[in-house]
Amino acid sequence: QLLISKANANGLRYEEAHQKELIDKKAELVRVNEQQRKIKEENEVILKQNKDLMECLAIVETKAKRLEHEVATEREKTYRIICECQDEVEGTIREHLQVFEDFKKKITKNVLSSILKLKMNILFHAQRGSLDFYIEEDPSTDEDMVLSTTNNDVTPSDDVRRGVYGDYML
Predict the structure, then answer these.
(1) 6-31 pLDDT tens trace
(2) Closest by alpha carbon to 119, among 147, 93, 88?
(3) Whether 118 contacts 160, CB under 8 Å
């Protein structure tokens, strides 16, 4: 009986240890199931966030493509405007150069005309001052000279009246 009672006591201890292990396993299973449920919920949240982020990414990519197209269009417009401005500046420079050339021609014409008038005044006064002096041909027929039509006044200035040695000729 002692053996039976020892066997029963050992069996009881084994049963208690087994029950305790079973309770521990069930508690661990409950804890693992709770963790799994939480992980599943977190995964669902993450999946929803990923889906939302993918939608946002698609929208951002679409906007980026549209903005890229707009930037390219604006660059093209800016380039065209710059080219137009450069053409206008070049045209203005050409016009200014032409006006300057015309001005130089006009100044040259006026200087030549003034020289011709001065020459005629000198010859006129030289002729009046000397009886033997005469003009063989009219200087206005000289093809190299350009006459001014703006001022036909041939009145000599004081410098011309004074003469070469400073005495008045008239």
Answers:
(1) 777 777 788 888 889 999 999 999 99
(2) 147
(3) yes
Q: State the pTM of this model.
A: 0.41
Q: What is the 3-state secondary structure (H, E, C) of the chain?
A: CHHHHHHHHHHHHHHHHHHHHHHHHHHHHHHHHHHHHHHHHHHHHHHHHHHHHHHHHHHHHHHHHHHHHHHHHHHHHHHHHHHHHHHHHHHHHHHHHHHHHHHHHHHHHHHHHHHHHHHHHHHHHHHHHCCCCCCCCCHHHCCCCCCCCCCCCCCCCHHHHHCCCCCCCC
Q: Which residues contact 127 (CB under 8 A, 6 or more apart)?
A: 133, 134, 135
Give the pLDDT score at 142: 52
Q: What are the average pLDDT values for consecutive 10-residue runs of the chain, which has 170 residues? A: 72 83 93 96 97 97 97 97 97 97 96 94 82 54 48 48 47
What pLDDT, on a 0 to 100 scale, did the predictor assign at position 165?
Answer: 47
Give the torsion through C-alpha atoms of 97, 103, 108, 110, to 10 deg.
170
Angle at 103 between CA 95 and CA 111, to 5 degrees: 165
Domain ranges for the chain? 2-162
